[in-house]
Amino acid sequence: MHGIAVRFGILEADKIRRLFRHGRFVTVISTSRWVSLRVLIGGSFIALVVVIWGALQWGIQNWFVYVVSIPFVFASAVFQSRRIYLYIFLAYVFAHMGIDLWMKEGAFLPGSDAVQWISITVAGEIIFQISSQRRRAETLNLRRIHELEVMNETLMSISSELDLSALLQRITEKAVKLLDVSLGELLLYDKQTGDMEIVAQYPPDASQIGFKMKAGEGAMGRVAVTKRPLILNDYKAFVNALPDDITTGIESTLDVPLLRGGEFIGVLGVARHEKNRKFTLDDQSLLTVFASQVTIALENAKLYKEVQHLAFTDGLTSINNRRRLFELADKEYKRSMRYRRPLSFMIVDIDHFKSINDNYGHAAGDETLRWFAAECSSIIRRKVDMIGRFGGEEFAFIYPEISLPSALIAGERLRRHITFEKIVFEGNELRITFSAGIVSLPFDEEISLDQFIERADKALYLAKQNRNSVAFWDDVTNAPVLLEGNET
Questions:
Q1: Is the pLDDT of residue 157 over 90?
Q2: Which CATH architecture has domain 165-307?
Q3: Where in 183-321 does DSSP place strands (E)?
Q4: What number does CATH give the domain 322-482?
Q5: Residue 146 has pLDDT above 90, yes or no
Q6: Dihedrals φ, ψ of 251, to 5°?
Q7: Which one-letter DSSP state was computed for residue 130?
């Protein structure tokens, strides 16, 4: 009987391996444990009653007890994560002892019967251990597979995002989902001030964005000092814990540094508000790997932003270059045409600019262009109006949501401002004026963007004949007209 039990144990272990190999074990253990537990206990109780009743009434031999008990012992060992089969097995042992004592008049002694029962117990325990280890291994494998899938999806998502502000928010969101936590924050370090600032948070909280802390403050501040990951599964007991009104009831935190080589650039942190969920070293390793990829993504986004800035910015004046100016004009033109909204465009030309180069040198001319661009940028509506270098000493302005009368007021106000200001260069005081041509988008006729800009250029040509003047395109006369009273 001992040999039968051991062979059965080997067969069951092999069966477990096959189940794992074909991926069916997940389905088996995913079945409701309560359902299988009720079936097992209920079936064992019925079998126990049948065995006892049969032994008492019909004289069934003891081998039948083995036949009935062994399948339940091994089935429980394979499909239950607890040692419930031992309790059920003990019921069979006591039943068998009772039958022996009653039928054999106390002849149950440590002997062959006891050895057989012990062999069954040992075989069942072996199978249980194999099953438990396989279950743990399978659970761990499934978790690792899930983490790798989420990591792959996350890295693909952040690597495809080049807009820096959107990337920061996406990184924080992906970290929260990757670690299955309730809060994520991303802080970037400012080398000049020594401050760390919250630049992204998920779920987003506008009141927290922009919050600054010094190195050493809170858990993230500790990470900034040590440049090492930090797990705090009892955050409130942390000696440098931030006030609860800032941490909002956080129970545990995991923070990792963002490093570019050996240079510290920020901290990525996640937190949980549940007391019974702790961070592990596996969580730390996962977030550390994620953080290393985050650093690369941040560098790519910064480089992309710099390249965009260089591609769209005039190198001398630091405003939009001609290419970017036309892209913005095309965008606003299409929007205005689609929604029938006002749009005005102005081209200006600095008067007698050549004389500045001839009399004071090209360095003075460059300084004049930079000064003019800065003065114009300070006058226009921020985040609404757009300015760009049209070419040489010519500049252009885009005025969304502004009709012709308002555009004329804006142009004249700018002309007067420039006229009364002065440029100081190497001890010399320079004064400049400009001529401007303004056009507004008509709604009673269809014109192209090129025609639209051409009308502004024709108005500028008329203003340059007068110098220090503003002219506009008159839709009624279909010709440029000089704005009256704009001479100084």
A1: no
A2: 2-Layer Sandwich (3.30)
A3: 183-189, 195-202, 212-214, 230-232, 252-260, 263-272
A4: 3.30.70.270
A5: no
A6: -105, -35
A7: H
